[in-house]
Amino acid sequence: MKDIIADTATEIRDMRIRGAGRIARAGASALAEYAREYGGNDLERFRADMAKASDILLASRPTAVSLWNGVHSATRDVDSAGSFEEARESVVRNGAAFVESSEKAVETIAKIGAKRIKDGDVLMTHCNSSAAIGVITEAVRQGKDVKVYATESRPWRQGILTIRDLSAAGVDVTLIIDSAVRTVMSKVDRVFVGADTITSSGSLINKIGTSQVALAASEARAEFNVCSETYKFSPKTLFGDSVTIEERDIGEIIRPGEMPEGVKVFNPVFDTTPAKYIDNIITELGIMSPGSVYGVMVRQLGDRISGYM
Ligand code: RUB
User: Fold this and answer.
1) Which has the higher per-residue pLDDT, 306 or 282?
2) d(CA 177, CA 190)
3) What does the entry list as the binding residues for substrate (predicted)?
4) How far is the CA of 48 from the centre of ligand 1 (A)?
5) Considering the domain boundaries, does residue 47 fall inside one?
6) How far is CA 111 from its chain centroid?
7) How many domains does the chain have?
């Protein structure tokens, strides 16, 4: 398999490329580049190699449906293509189109979401979501005066990236440890988080701890907003598939020698926030309730829906 596929999968697995939007764009771009540089000219061989490349990319991280949608968008016309050249061009074209529409969706979400923010608001964000950060920085760019609490997001500490991103954009940001969320929530007006996957029933799968942030927001009556491109809606959940929650190496949370014999360590890196804790899902199509996800998914899938059964 060509290096671009293996290298991209490794970068995603090792979290050098991370965040649901970025990994989806990296997957689609890698397939487009692989197709562009493809050495042979045999259609069947190309189809088999594209399927193999897709599987390698999809195995790199299991939770974000965005990666699955990015890979499937890039390869969607390979099976119906009538010639090798047509199949190859479709991957180059569809991969680039996915990247472009994904970037545009983040910009649109920023514009729509920024309108939810009022001058003087205190906000909270969890982990490092480009969609959520886009909303906050757009509001600040429009001249709104906001304060942001950003969680550390153990164990990978993506919150450090968030405070860098926000402070570079001139945002007044305060870092807190994850266990300070409930203490601080009484001061917070609105929470903005990203999404790895949204199920057909409107539940959110995002960085571990998101559901605790949502619970604390509900208790304190702070508005809980999810910033999500619609390609993070999971068509597979329509037909009963569950979202796999990635578990990562225990070395991410405990050092060698710290472990008493016989003790176990559990390191799930995403969790599920039930729809009832979500006030708004801010997408490139507009703001919707969790209950609207099913309808949007069905409309977007159109005739292709039976393929997901
Ligand atoms: C990142 C994370 C982000 C979502 C959305 O987890 O949970 O909130 O992926 O990000 P990890 P974006 O660091 O483990 O990938 O809005 O950038 O797509």
Assistant:
1) 282
2) 18
3) 18-21, 61, 206-207, 232
4) 31
5) yes
6) 18
7) 2
Q: Are residues 166 and 280 in the same domain?
A: yes
* Residues 228, 285 contacting (CB under 8 angstroms): no
Same domain, 295 and 173: yes
Whether 174 and 204 share a structural domain: yes
Same domain for 164 and 231: yes
Contact 157, 178 (CB under 8 A): no
271 in helix, strand or coil? strand
User: What's the confidence (pLDDT) of residue 256?
Assistant: 87
Taking the C-alpha atoms of residue 217 and residue 167, their distance in angstroms, rounded to an integer, is 24
Polymer length of the chain: 309
Half-sphere exposure of 74 (CA within 13 A, CB side): 33
Report the C-alpha gap between 83 and 171 in whole angstroms: 52
- The residue among 105, 136, 154 that closes a domain is 105
Domain identity same for 174 and 95: no
- Tokens 């990562």: give the residue: 248
CATH number where 101 lies: 1.20.120.420
Give the tens place of pLDDT for each residue, 60-98: 999 999 999 999 999 999 999 999 999 999 999 999 999
Tell me how far apart the alpha carbons of residues 73 and 93 are, in angstroms, rounded to a whole number: 10
The answer to whether 227 is a known catalytic residue is: no
User: Does the Cβ of 297 fall within 6 Å of ligand 1?
Assistant: no
- In the reported structure, the alpha carbon of residue 208 is separated from the centroid of ligand 1 by a whole-number distance in angstroms of 10
Cα of 90 vs its chain's centroid, Å: 25
Residue 138 Cβ contacting ligand 1 at under 6 Å: no
- Above 80 in pLDDT, residue 2? no
Q: Is the pLDDT of residue 249 over 80?
A: yes
